[in-house]
Amino acid sequence: MGDNPHRRGGLIMLAIAWVILFVGAYWYFEARLTHIANPNRAEVLALQHGEVRLQRNPQGHYLAQGEINGQRVTFLVDTGATRVALSPGLAQKLALARGAVATVQTANGPAKAYQTSLKTVRLGSIEVHDVAALITTGLDDDTVLLGMSFLKQMEFTQRGSELTLKPLGHM
Length: 171
Known about the structure:
Distance between the termini: 84 Å
Largest sheet: 7 strands, mixed
Shape: elongated
Order of helices and strands: HHEEEEHEEEEHEE
Structural class: alpha+beta
Helix content: 25-40%
Strand content: 35-45%
């Protein structure tokens, strides 16, 4: 007896179906985990006017998509950071000039940083101009610490798992 070509075709179709199922499941769960880690997508924040309401992620952090000088970034709200802080790699991508050298205290001890200025920082409908920032090592290229040089211009209130930011001039 020879190989049944119909049976071989059926097995190939079954294998293709399983591959499509696994790829679809991976895509779905990857998107779901990304949303859980950062529930504050730029598209959602853009719908808010006058204030921005951020949802805390399961790790207890407020992550949010925003922009620096028109380029999309992910912010980590950090009230313990004196200034907005970003990595040298991201600073290079954003074409930021390195200014005076400064020594900063981080969770890992003292680190060298460079002062810089951001033309615009946008979070949802909130935009702040000329924001002092630091370029420092030890940060991920895809996350910016949104420190007090931005936040001091906001009224911020935390209730439960929601943080509301409102520009001081709009109270």
